[in-house]
Write a structure and sequence with these properties.
517 residues; 6-stranded mixed sheet; binds 2-aminohexanedioic acid
Length: 517
């Protein structure tokens, strides 16, 4: 195996957080960890304790992106021609490395992103799952062979890589979402320039390390840190990039789609959601309550699949809302590394303020605040971006809090009187990522499954918790282009093109559709 140049392990003391180490994190370009050309840096901090700096990160400019794209372009030919099973073996080793480091990576996620430790570990596990799954694809990547209508002629379709991919990822799944993109991109034979969200830069560096340890040739995967405005959009419009995979907000995604459209460049964009759970009067209420709490407040509501609307049948509305309030009020906020914590902080000040603004909007619109609604700063939470789990009752489907993505621990409860009305409300937003229904009536499940307008539908389970081997993604303003995750029909179609080959060995000109053989 090649000698690798890892992120310098020379962590140094962070003066602001006694005893805790902060790391210097550099770009990874063409097999080397490099400072940004400008020498500039920025800090990544712990959202549960703003004084704790997790890493000092290279702040890249356009020249760093140029370097990374050049490296990916130069490595492309070699990687494209590396047999796919060999590519898969490298990815398998990367997954093994992640498994070995799972505990440490999970803890890092909690410190850098704020999600509670079991969720941090789940995030890493999702990456491991994707690694093993895509490693296996190295020995499949199958196409079709079908008989020709003409004699002495054969024909087949084969997958070919797209080229150099620009990959832009969000902070809410700092390792899982990069894994959804990098593993399939690499097994298909693409090379990559990866720009992660600044808030979770250290997680991204640690994740890339898995590929280096696994022996990925230099230049195949390159990592640049910096703001979306400064380098993300530059990467997307770079002349030497062939395609883009993006996960993030609708506003950014829409802009990037326009850029790519004008350049005839494929882009897959995963964006927001305004996901709903329908709870019918015949639902198993205990199950629905557990699902509503997890769907609304898991990951502090910072999942694009989070349930931010609960559409509840009027016959059970009162008992549901009382029990839901009671269950949510028992959730304990705090540092996600502590065993007793159920809900962590918001990621940063911008999100913190945005969520509080939406709570304000909800109150002005006349929704009934039944729980929470305030920042939470008791005890150890005084240094973080904590907001109480917040429930609005009596919400009208057209209110802004029931239409716009909030991305925080705020949920709207809406009353309904029938399945038909519930589905109409669920479908009545610009988004279409995930939806769910709790009911014991098999006919209700069939109607919901058929009529809910979303990329993912759950029956008797909340809107979160997609598994990696089926396609993931939304319709309407939730998604654009092909899907993430899954194999055929999902990630493999995003990260490869079909090439169709006809071979005529008859020794004469044969005309399809004209000659009858
Ligand atoms: C996201 O919120 O962007 O289904 C991804 C889920 C997770 C992935 C969420 N497996 O909630």
């Amino acid at each position: 195996m090649r000698v690798v140049n890892l992120t310098p392990k020379s962590a140094f003391r962070n003066p602001q957080s006694r005893g805790v180490e902060m790391e210097k994190i550099r770009n990874y370009i063409n097999g080397r960890w490099l400072d940004a050309k400008s020498g500039k840096t920025f800090q990544s901090t712990n959202p549960a304790n703003k004084n704790e700096v997790i890493g000092l990160i290279s702040k890249s400019g356009r020249d760093d992106v140029d370097l990374a794209v050049k490296a990916a372009r130069e490595a492309y030919e070699g990687w494209r021609l590396t047999p796919a099973p060999r590519r898969g073996e490298i990815l398998f080793r990367a997954a093994e490395f992640l498994l070995k480091k799972k505990e440490g990576l999970g803890r890092l996620e909690t410190r850098e992103m704020g999600k509670v430790l079991p969720e941090g570990l789940g995030d890493v596990q999702e990456a491991i799952d994707m690694g093993y799954y895509m490693a296996g694809e190295g020995r499949r990547l199958s196409g079709e062979t079908v008989p020709s209508e003409l004699p002495h002629k054969d024909m087949k379709s084969v997958r070919v890589p797209v080229g150099v991919f620009g990959v832009i990822t969000p902070w809410n799944f700092p390792i899982a979402i990069p894994a959804w993109k990098l593993f399939p991109a690499l097994v298909c034979g693409n090379t990559v320039v990866f720009k992660p969200a600044s808030d979770t830069s250290v997680c991204a560096a640690r994740f890339v390390e898995a590929f280096i340890e696994a022996g990925l040739p230099q230049g195949v995967l390159n990592l640049v840190f910096g703001s979306g405005g400064e380098i993300g959009e530059y990467l997307v419009s770079h002349p030497e990039i062939d395609a883009i995979s993006f996960t993030g907000s609708w506003e950014t995604g829409k802009r990037l789609e326009a850029v790519c459209g004008s350049m005839h460049r494929p882009i897959t964009a995963e964006m927001g959601g305004k996901n709903s759970i329908i709870i019918m009067d015949d639902a198993n209420l205990d199950l629905a309550l557990d699902g509503a709490v997890w769907g609304s407040f898991g990951t502090t509501g910072q999942r694009c699949t989070a349930a931010s609307r609960l559409i509840v049948h009027k016959k059970i509305y009162r008992v549901f809302i009382e029990r839901f309030m009671e269950a949510a009020s028992r959730l304990r906020l705090g540092d996600g590394l502590r065993k007793e914590t159920d809900v962590g902080p918001l990621i940063n000040e911008t999100q913190f303020k945005k969520v509080l603004e939406y709570i304000e909007i909800g109150m002005k619109e006349g929704a009934k605040l039944v729980l929470g609604g305030k920042p939470y700063s008791k005890g150890i939470c005084s240094k973080g971006y904590f907001i109480e789990p917040t429930i609005f009752g009596e919400v009208k489907p057209e209110m802004r809090i029931a239409q716009e993505e909030i991305f925080g621990p705020v949920v709207s409860v809406i009353k309904t009187d029938s399945l038909e009305d519930a589905i109409r409300i669920a479908n009545g937003t610009v988004y279409g990522l995930s939806s769910a229904i709790y009911t014991q009536d098999v006919n209700n499940t069939a109607i919901a499954e058929r009529d809910l307008e979303s990329g993912i539908v759950y029956i008797n389970a909340p809107t979160i918790g997609a598994e990696i081997h089926l396609p993931f993604g939304g319709i309407k303003q939730s998604g654009y282009g092909r899907k993430e995750a899954g194999g055929r029909g999902g990630a493999l179609d995003t990260f490869s093109h079909w090439k169709v080959i006809y071979r005529d060995f008859s020794g004469r000109l044969q005309k399809a559709q004209i000659d009858k053989g």
